[in-house]
User: What shape does this take?
Amino acid sequence: MSTPTPGPRRGLLGSLADFLDDRTGYRALVHEALYERVPGGARWRYVWGSTLVFAFMTQVITGLVLWSSYSAGAQTAWESVYFIQHEMAGGWLLRGIHHVMAQAMVVLLALHLLQVVIDGAYRAPREVNFWMGLVLMMLVLGMALTGYLLPWDQKGYWATRVATNLAGLVPAIGPSLQQVIVGGPDYGHHTLTRFFALHAGFLPGTLIVMLAIHIALFRKHGLCAKQPFTKPDALFWPDQVLKDAVACLAVMAVVLGVILVPALRAALDGRPIEWGHLGAELGAPADPSEPYAAARPEWYFLFLFQFLKVFEGWGASGEFIGAIVVPGLVMAVMFLMPIVGRWRLGHGFNIAFTFGLLAGAGLLTALAWREDYAARWTDTAALADVQDLLHETDGDEEKIAAALGNDPVKQAAFAARRKQWDGARHSQAFLDAVDTAHADARRAVELAGRPERIPAAGMLDLLRSDAATQGPRIFAQHCAGCHAHVDPSAPGAEAVIAKSSAANLHGFGTAAWARGLLDPALVGGPAYFGNTAHKEGDMVSFVQNDLAGNDSWKPDDVAAVVAALAAEAGFGDGLDEAVVARGRGLVADGDRCGSCHTFHDNGTAAGSAPDLTGWGARDWLVGIITDPTHERFYDGSNDRMPRFGTADEGAQPPLSAKQIALVADWLRGTWYRPAAAQ
Amino acid sequence: MGSTHHDPPADRPPGGEPRRDLLTRLAALTCGGLATLPPVLAGVWTFLDPLRRKGAAAAFHPVAELEAVPDDGLPRRFPVVSDRTDAWTGFASDPIGAVYLRREKGSETVQALSATCPHAGCFVEVDPQEKCFRCPCHNSRFAIDGGIVPPSPSPRAMDELECRIGPGGEIEVQWQNFYTGIAEKKARS
Ligand code: FES
Assistant: This one.
């Protein structure tokens, strides 16, 4: 009857909506966006694109918040990420989501690509959109690659070094390209600022523009519906949206699951949950001077990493082919897919190629893992003969052949077993490096949490001054050639001690160590003077003769001397003061220890035996490491111990004063421990 | 949707003066282009700044005393320490690299090898048991004198560094970085 008039009472919101629609036309836009026809009804197979958009949005949200707490700089990047991960409320969760979702995105990309290729969705008129998709894929991989460096930890640093060195192989512009990416001739502040700008600016900015076009084109051409239709057409909203939302929820659940599984395990095992160690790992701060044998890229780049090994023995062209030519060709084939796919056979080829590619990448990844973890299941004891033969022959091929009686069958068998042995050793080195890396990372976090906080010079500076971290390294490089450092009661310790050519320094300065020194059964053994020039010396003969059931030395006396020595070293806590005082008297006594050793002001001339004043204390240890030939220590009777802290005019000593102090502190076990662990 | 208050220009017949039209287009493009150029150029200029930066010139650095390298043919690792700068930060005596030094029995001459893998730049380690070098990244193997052990992915032997005995008897090594992944040992400047 009457023409429909606008409702008399539209309300304020309604009028506002009308106003907006009049000025913007948003209703039509929304309508177009939501009421897209889905031929054949909503289906699960159409969800992949939406999950990718969802994953990207997750990265944008978490990324922006991470950005607001991140500081790109060689002395601040690790530190700020540490702060996010271990101190900011929920930081571990935020970083965990960003980290795991990045991996989920790579998986979803592969699935999306697979689906598009199988369905032939790249064919006319959708070619351009397929190409856009490939570019999007490269952008996502680029963000993954650049993001890996940002925490500036060891693994990111070394993986990035390899990646940027590969960029240097690009013909003609390679070296310049590398220098522009790295931000100069060396890795540092500008590597970080550039990678960050790429990761959070250039790449996602480009991605958003491309994604908008990708989705617009997708809408323009409509869904590439899969025949036959089993159901009537449906609308995008709400039918397909529901399926998409469920899929996104599932993706998020998997991401959270990956983050929380270690917490669940800890809870089930009754261990405390370490929230700060959930989600994304944070390694020790990047150190260009510290080898990192556990350097591996993220798992989804592992196949490329492994691929470089395929070209073993190809010389210079191998790396170029592996890192530039083959990946370039693969991308070229993918870009040509829409054209090749015009023919039935071509479409078949495309499908086979994509599956082949994924299978190849899967295989390479599996190979990489198998190589890295081989030591876990290789029975190295069964391969001991390989090691023995290699040692006997010094690895000389002719000698090996001779030892095997020049029998080709035996030689081939040996070669195979040698390869296995080699692999196990290589893998063991990797596994050890992973352990060290974990220990370093934990230590760095522990130190960062000190009440004094991280110094302005950065975490690396602090870690380099940490006895617990550096002591074992300096010892291994400079001392372990002669000295053992093993707990004598640990399994296998005896063999290690027997092989050393100087005293076992484990627990040096403690009562237990001093007790062993004064034990007639031990003093001449490999843990003390057995493998040194002092084996037949005065000290050994004194302990073996005078302390073994001699009337002048009662067991009590020996115990008192042990207590006095431990007290000198600063390990006298809990010892009976009277016993210590009596021991000090015995040590100073000119008829006993004092006949050779100086001790405080007992008047014995320096030089005949080490001064026992402050024996085993930090200062004493630093002194003997600096110069064992000093009259305070061994003087002229020094065996083979080098002077580590002094040198002839103009020359540099092997160790700096700081390094010597670090070894001394480590030997004495004095380093920072968090209050809870004490 | 379209408003009816103004006639959209497209509804008008094409202008009757093609010359003027061409000029307008050219002028529009030129002005727009000129306006955009400064930010783009300034951006590119600064972005490419790293190309001007040179690494530290190759120089001899004292690394260790002769006695610190036993003449048993086995390589020992030493850090190369020098002052260095990282953009705006200056570091006094910071490790800038690592070298392996070795000496044959009874020999006074020292061989110095860079610890950087010529394949892709990982840190090469010594395998004292097998008396060889191994790279933990892609399993390149090098003989104890740095020569390549085939089959290895590395395109060349380890990079030998120039090395001399300084006035005080200490070993001085000329530290240099080299391009990785190519057969030629080419120094980065
Ligand atoms: S970096 Fe050394 S083998 Fe690849």
Chain B has a mean pLDDT of 86. Chain B touches chain A through 63 residues (CB under 8 Å). Residues B 117, 119-122, 135, 137-138, 140, 153-154 surround FE2/S2 (inorganic) cluster (CB under 6 Å).
